[in-house]
Amino acid sequence: MNPQPGQFQDPLHYWNLSGSRQQQPTEPTFLYFAYGSCMCPVDLKRTLGENTHSFVIGPATLKGYRLSFNRRSALRECGVLDIVKDSTASVEGVLYRLPWRLSDALDKREEVPQGGYRHEIVKVSSCNQTYTGVRTYVVVDKLATELAPNDWYFNVVLRGAITCGLPEEYCWKLFDHMHQLQRHHWNTQPMRSA
Questions:
Q1: What pLDDT is stored for residue 17 in this prediction?
Q2: Domains of the chain
Q3: Distance between CA atoms of residues 93 and 62, nearest Å
Q4: Is 37 in contact with 80 (CB distance < 8 Å)?
Q5: pTM, entire model
Q6: Dihedral, CA atoms, 165, 171, 174, 179, nearest 10 degrees?
């Protein structure tokens, strides 16, 4: 007996209204805008446990925010990136379409359960398209002044920006921001005796 149009035949297929067989939609996904170390698909893979290159939509721009190193990461022992609302600025980053099954692992990476970051839903533009309902992360308890990144974080952020094709001018700006913070950090450290 054939199923009626619109009724399920088996878990993998369904019948459309014309009676022809079609694949069920792919697994649920969510859009994610990365602006820090998660811009690097290799580093994101380290946390999420699978290759994330295929989930990259492309470089993206978030208007109305600016970058700031407003959080000290206990894991990385340095300042890490945050975004702060600023109507005169914009942030470049990487837009991913991630499978929903990776949502909890991403939250864990961003220390959402511990109150490190929280979700913020934003609108970004990428590849001449506007995307709404995009998840990104913002620091919950922001530091009063920026804290310098260490060399590892500096390199992984820059590698992600370059690998995923962020504008060259923005990459230089990002490099300069991190470099200036590191210089300030080292210039204010007390001299160590030999």
A1: 46
A2: 25-181 (3.10.490.10)
A3: 8
A4: yes
A5: 0.82
A6: 130
User: Dihedral, CA atoms, 110, 111, 113, 117, nearest 10 degrees?
Assistant: -70
Joined together, the tokens standing for residue 151 give: 């060399």
Which residues, given as ranges, of the chain have pLDDT below 70? 1-25, 190-194
Pairing between strand 21-23 and 13-15? antiparallel
Q: What angle do CA 182, 42, 96 make, to 5 degrees?
A: 100
Copy the structure tokens of residue 86: 């600023």
Distance between CA 184 and CA 186 in Å, rounded? 6
Cα dihedral sign, 98-135-108-156: positive
